[in-house]
Specification:
single chain; 641 residues; 10-stranded mixed β-sheet; 5-stranded mixed β-sheet; 12 helices; globular
Length: 641
Amino acid sequence: MQSQDVASRPAPASADPVVDVERAEAALVEHYPRLVRLAYLVLPPSLGRNRRVVTAHSLTQRALPRGRASSTSVIPAQATGREGDPGYTFLRLRVLRTALEAGLPLVRPAWPKRSQLPPLLPQVWGLRLFPRSGGADELALDQRLSALSGPARAAYVLRGLEKLPDGDVREVLTAAGVEDVDDALDEADAVPAQYALLDSPEFDPCSLQARPTDLMRRRQHLRAALAAGAALLVCGALLGLPGEGWAPDGPAAPSYAQNPAAEAALDPAQLTKVPALAWQSSARTDFSVWPARGELTGDSALLRRALAVWARPGETVTVSATPGTPAGGPPGAPQLLYAGTIDTARVVILYDGLRIARYAEPTDGTAGAALDFSRVDGASRAGASAVVLSRADGNVRYLLAPWVKRAAERDLLKPDSGAMDLTVTRGVTSPLASPVSQRTGACSSWNVLQVTDTAGTRLLTDLAELVPARLTEGRPGAAVDVTGAKALHAWAPYSCWLGALRSAGVRAVNSWTFARQTLPDGTGTADWVCTRAETWRGGGERVLAQFRTPGTAQAAVVAKAENVSACGARDPHVLAGVLWKAKAGDWYLMAAGTRDTGSIQATGGVDAISRGHLLEARTKQGAQAKLKATLENGRSINGLQ
C-alpha cells in the first residue's frame, strides 16, 4: 500500500511515474471500467464500434508496467481517490497515449505501432460486440466527438470524464505526446460541455450487446469444417476397428437422442409447485419450501416461454449472472416461485436447487426479454428471506419468504429516523428506493429492506443482484443482525461503501469495529472498522479496512483485499494502517490490530515498534512503510493492503 497525503492532490506527471507493478495492478482492477471507457471515447470512431470495444479493452490490459516489481508495501492515505492514486495516474497516461497512437495514420516505410494494429486479445469469435444504445443526446454527442481530432477528443474526455481543470489537461496531453495542446483545447471548446452524457451506457464498453457476424460466410466455413470433420471421423472409425472401447463417449447415447430430464425442464406441467403451508412443517427453511405465488401461475404459455428461454436464450434476450453462477439450462423440472405482472412486465421466478432464475418480458410483447441468474445454494432462513422481483424508476420490489411477517424500509445513513412500513400484497412489497444507481461519491442515503419473522428482525440490502445481501455486525464468528440503536449507529458511517460490492455475488456483509485509537493531538478517538463481504460461491470474498475520525460523516477506506481469510470467521484478525494529519499540521502513522495483537512493527519509510494492538509514530508527509504484527500466540500477520 502506498501512502497518499490527505491534504494534497498531486498534479498529473509529465513523465511515467515510478509505480510498482502491484500498485498498478490494484489500480487497474479497481478502476478498470473507467479506464476502458476513457480509451473507448478517445479511440477514433472510424474503427467501428466492435473494434473500438475490443481495442479499448486491449489497450487497458496492456497498460500495466513491466519489470517494476517492488517488495515494499505502502500505507494508503486517510482519504483516497483516483487523482490521489499514482497507480491510476500512471495507467491513465499509458491508456491515453496508446489510444492517441491508435488514431494515427499508417505511414510507410515506418513500422506501425502495436496500438495501430488490430488487437490479438481479447477476441470473441462469431459475435460483434458494442455498447448499449443511448438516447438522441448521446448519439448527437458521439457524432460531434467523431468530428474532432484525437487530441481534441482526449481533451474533452479529460475535462468531462476525469473532471480535470485545463491546467492538468495540458500536462496530461503533453505527457501523452500531443504536440499542439492549445489547438486541441480550442477544438474541444467547439463541442457543448455535455459532460454528464460521458457516463451514459452509450459509451460503456464494459456493458455490451452481442450480434452475429456475417452468417452466410460463417455457414460456408462451417460446411468446410464439417467436411473435414467427417473425413477425420471416417479415419478414426477405420483405426478403431481392430479393438473395442475406443469411442470417447463410451455407452452414451447419440447427441441427438431425447433426454427425459431435459424434456421435463421445458414442460410447464412438470414444474414443482409447493403447497402454501409446506414451510410450516418442513425441516428446511430455504427457497425449496416457497410456495408458487402470483396471478399468472396457471399461464402455460408464459411459463413455457420462460423455460424455453432459460434452456436456450435467443440473441435478443439480455442474460446476466452473478459471478460463479452457471447460466445453462436447468437439470430437470425446476420449482416455480412466482409468475405475475409487476409494473410493466410479466415476471417468472424459478428455482432449481442451485440458482434463482428470473425471466421478465414486457406486457405488450416479448421483445426485450431478460433472463437473470443468481446462485443461492446453501441458503439459510435469513438468506432466503427475499428475492428481487423488479427494478423500475430507481425503486425495487421484493417477493418475500412465506415466513416473513412484516417488511419496512430503513435508511442506513439515518439510524434515528426509524423504519417506514411497506405494504405487502400476497408476498410482494410496495416499491422502495433502491441504492443500486447511487455512486459512492454522491451517497446521500442508503435504503435497505427490514424484514421481521418469528426468528427476529434483519436488514437486507440491494446490491444489483436477485437476492439481497444480509447485513450483520460484530466479531466474526459471533456476528448478529443489525438491530437496535447501537448497531444501526455503528453501521451508519460505513454504509455508502456498500456500493463497492455491487454485482459481486455477495451473500452477507459484516461490519466489525476491531479497534479504537486515541488521536495524538487530543481531538478524540478514531474507530478502526473491518467490513467483510462473503459470497454465495465461497470465493471472491472482499475485505475493506476503514478509518473514521471524530466529526466525520463517513469513514475512509485505507485498505482493500480480495480472497483473503482476514476479518472472517476462520481468521478473525486484521492489521491496517494509515497516514493521518493532525490539525497542527504534523503527520503520523496510525496502525491497529485486533486486541490479541502482542506487538506491531513498521519498517521502510517509518521505523517504529509498539507493544499491544495500537501503533502511533510521528512521520513525514508521503512516507512509506510496511506493517507486520505478532499475535499473543506467536503467529505473525502482515498489514492488510
